[in-house]
Amino acid sequence: MWRYLLKRVLVIFPTLFGIALISFLFVTLAPGDPTALKLSSTGKTRGGGTDELTIRKNKELFGLDLPRVLNTAPATRATVVAALLVDLDDRAEALRAEAVTRLGQDVGAAGLELALADLPRRVTAAAGERTRREEALGALEAALGQGASGGGAARPEDLARALERLATDYPELAPPAQLLDGRVLEPAERARRWLAVRGVLLADAEAPARRLLRALALAAPPRTGGPALAEDAGLDVAARTWGAWWAERAAHFAPDRVAAAVEDWLERGVVPAPRPRRTSGSVPYLRP
Asked: How far apart, in Å, are the Cα atoms of 47 and each of 38, 41, 50, 55, 81?
C-alpha cells in the first residue's frame, strides 16, 4: 500500500513537468504571432489602426520579447541604453518619442555616461548631413537661377538633376509633385517648393542629435543641477556645454558613490525605502 502511494506521488512530478513542457511547446511553436492574435480578438488589428508601438508594448507586457527558453543576456544598463539610442532613430515618430522619454526618465542619470558618449558622434553626423543638404539646396538655387550671382536663367538639365537628387535622398520631405486636381507641377515650381521647406529640411538633419539632447535634459534638468541650455542653442555649443558639465560631475555618478548616497538617505529617512514592484516593458532591474 505504502509503496503504491509513494509511487503515485513520485509520478506526479514528471507528469506535471510533462504537462508544462507540452503546454509551453504548443504556445511557443504554434504558427502566428500571439500578440497579433490577442489584438485581433479584441478588434484592434493592423487594418483597424494598430501601430508597431502597440504591438511592441504588448510583447513587452507579456514577456514575448524575451528569449523563449533561456535568457543568456539579461538586460544591463549598457544594453538598455544602446537599444534606446537605436530607437531614437526609428522611422516611427511614436517609437522615437517613447525612446526620448524612457532614456530621459526611466533610465535617467544611470544612462548619462553612455548617452553623452554618443552625443559627439551625433553632432558630427548632423553637421555633415546639414552641409550636404545645404549643398543640394544651393545646387537647386543655382539651377533655378537664384544663386549668389542672381539674375540667371533656369537651366533645365541642372534643375532636373538637382530635383532628382533631393527627391531620392529625402523622399519623406519631398513636396508633392502633383496637385489635387491632377495637374503636375513644373520643375521650376517644384524647385521653389523645395526651397520653401529649407528650414524643415535643415532642422530634420539635426533631429537625431536634438532628440538625444532632449533625453539628456530630462535625465539631468537644470533644476537638479543639469546644464541650462536654450532650446535653439547650436549643436556645437550644446555638446561642449554637456561635455564640460559631465567632466565636472562624472565622479558624482559613479556606482559606488550613488549606492553610498542612497544608503545614507535611507538611514537618515530622507527618502522612504522603495517597495518592490514589477515594471512592464520599461527598464526592469538594470544591472551595472
From this structure: 14, 13, 7, 13, 32
Pair 153, 144: CB distance under 8 Å: no
Comparing C-alpha atoms, which of 246, 211, 249 is closest to residue 101? 211
Over residues 229-266, the pLDDT tens digits come to: 887 889 999 999 999 999 998 887 777 776 776 677 66
Task: Report yes or no: 35 and 56 within 8 Å, Cβ to Cβ.
Answer: no
pTM for the predicted model, two decimal places: 0.71
> Which among 216, 244, 206 is positioned nearest to 114, based on CA atoms?
216
10 Å CB burial of residue 60 (0-12, 13-18, 19+) is middle
Q: How many residues does the chain have?
A: 288
Contact of 247 with 116, CB cutoff 8 Å: no
Question: How many whole angstroms separate alpha carbon 68 and alpha carbon 75?
Answer: 15
218, 104 in Cβ contact below 8 A? Answer: yes
Between CA 256 and CA 107 the distance in angstroms is: 17
Is-contact 186 154, C-beta < 8 A?
A: no
Q: Label residues 153-180 b or e (16+ Cβ within 10 Å = b).
A: eeeeeebeebbeebeeebeeebbeeeee
Q: Which of 123, 91, 209, 187 is nearest to 195 (CA)?
A: 187
Contacts of 190 (CB under 8 A, 6+ apart): 163, 175, 177
CB 133, CB 202: distance < 8 Å:
yes
